[in-house]
Design goal:
By secondary structure, the protein is α/β, with parallel strands linked by helices. The protein has helices spanning 47-57, 72-83, 128-131, 139-143, 160-176, 193-203, 222-227, 230-233, 240-253, 301-314, 319-333, 346-354; strands spanning 16-19, 23-27, 41-45, 62-65, 67-69, 92-94, 106-110, 119-123, 148-152, 179-183, 209-211, 259-267, 272-281, 284-287, 291-294. The chain has 12 helices and 15 strands.
Length: 361
Amino acid sequence: MEHYNPLLRGVKGQRFLAIGEIMLRLTPPNYGKIRVANSFEASYGGSEANIALALANLGVDSTFFSVVPNNSLGKSAIRMLRSNDVHCTPVILSTREETPTHRLGTYYLETGYGIRPSKVTYDRLHSAISEYDFSKVDLDALLGEFDWLHLSGITPALSESCAQFILDCLKKARELGMTVSFDGNFRSKLWSWEQARDYCTQCLPYVDVLMGVEPYHLWRDEDDHAKGDWKDGLPLQPSYEQQDEVFQHFVERYPNLKCIARHVRFAHSGSENSLMAYMWYQGHTFESKLFTFNILDRVGGGDAFASGLIYAMMHGYKPMDMVNFAVASSVIKHTLHGDGNITDDVSSIRDLMNMNYDIRR
C-alpha cells in the first residue's frame, strides 16, 4: 500500500504543526434545543485543533499552536489536547494585558435529528487569539522544526492580525521548504464570501495540498465571473467530469498545487448522510467510494477527512487508498461525540475503506 511520496521533501521525522483557534463547545444533551436547555455538555474543538488531535491519535508527531487566555478555560482546552498526545508547548497563555477581553471563544451546537438539521451559534468575538499581537511571534522558531504545516480559512476571518499572521506563516513555510495544507473552510457567520475569496487569492500560491474546495472558485478574477462558465454553475454534488474540470483550472493557475481534495455530502436527513470525495493528485482526478451511514455527531467531519488525507499522504498510500482512507476517516468521526476524531486504530479505518459500502443511490 505504501510508496514514495514526493510531497515529503527533506523529511525530518514527519513532524506536523497546525495553527488555529480552539473553542469551548456547549451542547444541549439528547438532541435538545438551546432555548429550552437546562444544561449543556462541555467539550472543546476547532478545525485545526481537531486535525492535530486526530493525527496524534493515529500516531503522528502532532503539535498545535494557538493563543488562549491564561485561566481555567484556556488551560482546560490545552489539557484536553495533551490528553490526546498533541504537543502544546508553543501555545501562548495570554495575560489580560496582552488580550484585554481575555476570553476563550465559545460555540453552541444544537445537534440535528431526522429532518431537523444541526445549528451552530458562535460566541467568539474578541477571543484571545483574535486580540493577540502576532508581531511578537518568531516564525523561524515556531515553524523551523516541523515538516508539515496545516492552516485553514477560518482563523484569518477572526481579525486583521490573524489574517496577516496566517499569510506570514504561509510565506515562511514556503521559505523553509515545508509541506503546506490549507482547508478553505468558508464560514459565512465570520466574513463574506467576497472577503474570503480575496484572502484565499493571496494564500493559494503558497499551498501544496488544498482541501475543502467549495462549489465556487477561491481566487479573485472579475473576468472569470463575466464568463458565466463552470465557476458559477458547479452543483453541490458535482459529477466526475465537472469536478475534474474545476481541478484542472486550479492547477493551471496554481502549478504549485500538488494535491486538491474535497468531500461531497448527500444529506438524506439530519440523521443519515452519504459521503464520497474527489481528489486531484499526480495529474489525475480520483473518485472515492460512496459511504452511507447514520450520524451521531456531524461536527468535525470535514476535519476528519482532512486528517485522514494528511495521514495517508504522510504514509505514502496509493492515490485511491488516499482518498478512500480520508472518506472512511470522516465516516467514523460521524459516529463519535465531540469535534475530534479520537480513533487510535488505523486498521479500523482501513477495514472500513476496504468494505463494499459503495451503493449508489
